[in-house]
Amino acid sequence: MNTNRHYGMDWLRIGAFALLIFYHIGMYFVPWGWHVKTPHPMDWVQIPMMATNSWRLPLLFLVSGYASAALFAKLGGVGPFLRSRSARLLIPLAFGMIAIIPVQPWIELVTQHDYAGGFLHFWSRDYFGFGTLEGIVLPTWQHLWFVVYLFVYTLLAAMVLAAIPERARVAIADGAARLLAGWGMLFVPLAAWLTILFAFPGYRETHALFDDGPNHLHYLVPFFIGWLLRVRPALFDTVARCWPVAAVVAIAAYGYVAWALWAAPGEGPPPEGVVTLFMAIRLVQGWAAIVALVGVADRFANRDHPGRAMLAEAVFPFYIIHQTIIVLVGYWLLLGGVGPLASFLVLVAATIAGCWAFYLGGRRVGWLRPLIGLQRKARDRPTALCQPSANISGG
């Protein structure tokens, strides 16, 4: 393994989570179901949203796999790796579910199901009921489902590493790297995705962990490839050869996706069990875009910057708080009858300001740091901000 830090993957991760924030702001305006909605959703918003819809989450799992492999190599064993991941993921998850998330289902119940109780009544009486209320499972992890899935995939990786001798692990990694060599990086993962699509036609994401099997298979593909990119960095040479073609394929596929949405903006999902051309092209767009983005990050962004370390550390706190800010501010905008353009500008400004306040305030308070996903501050570790363990995707 090349132990040099790949700054391009850091920037890719920072950009992916920044994009996630803007995507969730867009959820306020798009016709798709969400926790709080503008009174007049706009069909055209679907078109820019679908530019990233097929690859934004798989890309997060890919950079998570890469950084998880880096952390495992740094800690040098399954035990330390699992202890680090458990503390850095499960503590913020519990804190988020108790203190950060509850306002989201309350607002959804109030605005879409005529729930009459105030927030304190909801939090003390209904939220911890361990059941459903108007179809909403309570308590809930909402957008923190990504943390749950990442921990499970981390646990799975640790189990595999513990069960397979090192020589066998090396042979498996070498074999997988050979499979992805050449144009395999573009075609093999895409073939896996298409196989999952046709094996489970029409499956819907639930983010509920135990009934989301096809979705797990879908996300484990990029997670494994991200891990492999770290342990077999020569694969970046493969990416370098094929990413320009992948970029062209991604743009062309998105052209079809955008045209399909423009031609039939209000068309609902197909019948259960039906695989459409739109679904397949969307997967082509998704994987080709990921290969292109990794190639761009490797070619043009593999360099450090004075602000990188802070941005890398800020990602997890931003992720924890951003959706609650969006839903809460969106609720106030809904009550105030604010128009779409003003609502968008307010949501962007409030979310960015709120995320920075949450991060900058929490990082200064020792006991808050683990709750918001930051490493405990050690007086004798002045370079802690630069460690890969200081982020959600790595450890």
TrEMBL record:
Entry-linked InterPro entries: Acyl_transf_3_dom (IPR002656), Glucan_succinyl_AcylTrfase (IPR050623)
- The reply on keyword Glycoprotein is no
In alphabetical order, the GO MF annotations are:
acyltransferase activity, transferring groups other than amino-acyl groups
Q: Name one Pfam family in it.
A: Acyl_transf_3
Q: Which residues cross the membrane?
A: 12-35, 55-77, 89-107, 143-164, 176-196, 216-235, 242-262, 274-297, 309-334, 340-360
- State if Cell division is listed as a keyword: no
Which keywords annotate this record? Acyltransferase, Membrane, Transferase, Transmembrane, Transmembrane helix
Q: Which domain of life does the protein's organism represent? A: Bacteria
Q: Which residues form the signal peptide?
A: none
Q: Where is the Acyltransferase domain?
A: 7-359
Q: PANTHER family recorded for this chain? A: BLR4337 PROTEIN (PTHR36927), GLUCANS BIOSYNTHESIS PROTEIN C (PTHR36927:SF3)
Q: This protein is called what?
A: Surface polysaccharide O-acyltransferase, integral membrane enzyme
What's the source species for this entry? Sphingopyxis indica
